[in-house]
Design goal:
heterodimer; A: mainly alpha; B: mainly alpha; 10 helices; 0% strand
Chain lengths: 243, 232
């Protein structure tokens, strides 16, 4: 099998240019999809018979919650690739994922709290999903703290990479332990009311929003990885030629 | 480069590492005792902070003992790899042609023997103070035995990752505590089920499963982390 494309992608100048070309193709569709979804979600979709207009926060909450976990997996996979093949670019991707993923997690928690106040009457409840989301945030923060504490980029890459891989093994264990903990603490009185049995008229904006968030994540990741490449290669010859 | 011909086998290597660690711990027994003392003091703080009423304390006893055990294990981890990295021993371990992961596993096992096991032995005493009935002692000790071993293994990964970092102790807590959440949940759950006389096999089995997973995969992560820590 021919692996040249793989190695070519790993070369910083090539990746820098490629990501720059890719970015607008991700960013503008994301903006269009999100605007369409915001309009349809806020103005067109009918009011929920039970939750009133509060349900509309779901259009931000659900995409950020699902992305928070997806980005963590992506970060761990990128870190694993970086450790195994000693690929610097993969580490740059992992580092870029961490910050964005942590913000998605914060967004999911905040929107969840805003939704929870009118619905449950409390900003916070020790619901398994909330709790595991909070622990996920701690995992992200630990990863970033470990990266920040190394002065040498290469060592920071490898050390934080190991942590990301250990973390991804742990994520399902945390998820199930928290679920089990909660089911024994109290009856599952709290659940997202009928997230599976969602009304068809509410669904298209949600799907559009999820795809929009995903593309937006891709665009921001391009930016972050490019910035990361610039920092790492600041003394390299190809940069002064390009400038 | 010539291979060392009189290299010890795996078990001989294990007994040498264990012997060295235990001897060292015996010579610095005051340092070994500190996390234990910390465990006792933290547990003592809870009745002072909440209420001396045994009926109330009994309700929070599993959580208190487990949180205290977790913090004490964290405190003990600080000295797991750092002295050996600082005096160059770990560098020799990395350079030696012996399996690093195996040696680190044994080192962590020795660490558990001097930091985890005394805690297990001490726990009925503290448990009684918090109103844990004698009937729940076996569960308390079993959960702590499995749990502190798992905490040592998970914590050792964190300790290895932060060994190359200045002022790594707060960072260590930040990295390790979220990873240890499942151990806390299952451990405290086993104790509180045991106190009400319910079946405890479930959480104990899950703790054992976590321990087995940590023992089988943890040393590899530790070895990779230590390699990063010593090169500088």
């Amino acid at each position: 099998m021919n692996w040249t494309w793989f190695h070519k992608f790993a070369s910083p100048p090539h990746a820098y240019r490629l990501l720059g070309t890719l970015r607008p193709w991700l960013f503008w569709p994301a903006v269009v999809l999100m605007l369409w979804a915001v309009y349809n979600g806020l103005f067109v979709a009918p009011t929920d018979y039970q939750q009133g207009d509060s349900f509309r926060i779901m259009y931000v909450h659900v995409p950020s919650a699902s992305l928070s976990l997806m980005v963590y997996s992506m970060m761990a996979i990128a870190a694993g690739i970086g450790i195994i093949w000693r690929m610097k670019l993969a580490h740059a991707v992992a580092a870029g994922c961490a910050v964005i993923g942590a913000w998605f997690t914060v967004l999911a928690l905040v929107t969840g709290a805003i939704w929870g106040k009118p619905m449950w009457g409390a900003w916070w409840a020790w619901d398994p999903r909330l709790t595991s989301e909070l622990i996920l945030l701690f995992l992200y923060l630990g990863y970033m703290a470990l990266r920040a504490s190394y002065d040498d980029v290469q060592r920071a890459d490898r050390a934080s990479g190991i942590l990301a891989v250990v973390g991804i093994v742990n994520v399902p264990i945390v998820k199930y332990s928290v679920q089990w903990w909660n089911s024994l603490h109290q009856g599952s009185s709290l659940s997202l009311t009928g997230s599976s049995a969602i009304d068809p008229s509410m669904l298209p904006p949600l799907l559009a929003m999820m795809v929009g968030f995903l593309l937006f994540f891709g665009a921001i990741l391009c930016d972050r990885v490019r910035a990361e490449i610039l920092t790492r290669e600041r003394n390299a010859g190809w940069l002064s030629e390009a400038a | 480069m010539s291979r060392v011909t009189d290299a010890p086998g795996l078990w001989a290597l294990a007994s040498r590492v264990l012997g060295r660690e235990l001897t060292l711990a015996g010579r610095h027994w005051d340092q070994v005792a500190q996390p234990l003392l910390f465990f006792v003091i933290v547990v003592t703080l809870f009745p002072l902070a909440t209420s001396p009423d045994l009926a109330q304390l009994r309700q929070i006893a599993p959580g208190v003992v487990w949180v205290a055990a977790m913090l004490s294990s964290l405190l003990a981890l600080e000295s797991l790899f750092r002295p050996d990295v600082e005096d160059g021993t770990m560098e020799q371990w990395v350079l030696s042609e012996q399996p690093l992961a195996w040696m680190l596993l044994m080192k962590t096992a020795a660490h558990w023997l001097v930091s985890g096991l005394p805690l297990v032995i001490l726990s009925p005493l503290l448990g009684t103070g918090l109103g844990v009935p004698v009937s729940a002692w076996p569960v308390l000790m079993a959960s702590l035995a499995l749990g502190t071993a798992a905490l040592s293994m998970l914590g050792a990964i964190g300790a290895a990752l932060t060994v190359g970092v200045r002022r790594g102790n707060v960072l260590l807590a930040l990295l390790v505590l979220p990873l240890e959440v499942p151990v806390l949940i299952f451990g405290a759950r086993a104790v509180s089920l045991g106190m009400t006389g319910e079946a405890v096999a479930g959480p104990l089995n899950l703790l054992a499963a976590i321990l087995i997973l940590a023992v089988s995969l943890g040393p590899m992560a530790m070895a990779a982390a230590i390699r990063i820590g010593v090169e500088s």
